[in-house]
Write a structure and sequence with these properties.
Blueprint lengths: L12 E7 L2 E8 L3 E6 L10 H7 L3 E6 L16 H15 L4 E6 L1 H12 L4 E7 L8 H17 L3 H11 L2 H6 L2 H12 L2 H13 L15 E6 L7 H10 L4 E5 L5 H4 L1 H12 L5
Parallel strand pairs: 3-4, 3-5, 5-6, 6-7, 7-8
Antiparallel strand pairs: 1-2, 2-4
Helix pairs in contact: 1-11, 2-3, 4-8, 5-7
Length: 279
Amino acid sequence: MNRRTSPHQPEWKRHLIATTVGRLAVWEGGTGSPVVLRHGIFFDHTMWASQADALAKSHHVILIDGPGHGESSDPGRGYTLADDAQATLDVFDYFGITAATVIGHSWGGMSAVRTALRAPERVKELALIDVPLEPSSPLGRVRYWMFKALVLLVGAPAWYGAQVAVAMFSAESRRDIPSLTTDLQRHLAAMPRLPLARAMDAVLVRPDHVLARLGELTQPVMVLAGEEDYVLTPKTREALARHVPHASIATMPGKHVLPLEQPAETLRRIQQFLAGDDH
């Protein structure tokens, strides 16, 4: 997304920005109120390709590659979600952004929540797409630790990418858009082992608890999840309704990667949120 592909699309400019989690590759395009987009683990900024050009027609859009993903460097050490949240604020500072709408998918949303809790005055709106709001069970974390150990040992071969695709995409999505699986397999196989393992550690193995702090969120919040995803459990819905009664919560067909499984509808929901139609 570093160049314009037609006269009707925005020109994207690439930056390398020093942050608390290393040098991050960041793309900016468009003018208007700032919108920051953060992707989920195992992906990079290109997962927003179906939404970014449209959003940049009316907003200053910032796309961030997470540490060790896409064209961002590995920080050379372990890091936490809190560190990653601070990195978003480092990007704000680089561009002179006082406040922005922050939109995050999965890991990107986990980071976005913590950015909003760290600096609420700088996150004017918060959109969370397929975002886990509480850590996995102890058994689930052990399972993720084993996956991390596997990645350190052998990387992420095609068979592992196929298993990840089953967790990420609904059966219907995998059938109708087979490139979702093959692209993910190719992307994972190309990722260096240590940066990938560090991200898995921060995001999957040892994320901190923030569910009880959601009551501190006062800005407009949109929560969107796939109907087959695990993130909006009854317990999580109940906690959201209790702690963030002003949040809009919705599901739509798909599993864990709605920006790729339902690109047009995800864009429509984001545009509706940005227009203030649901808050």
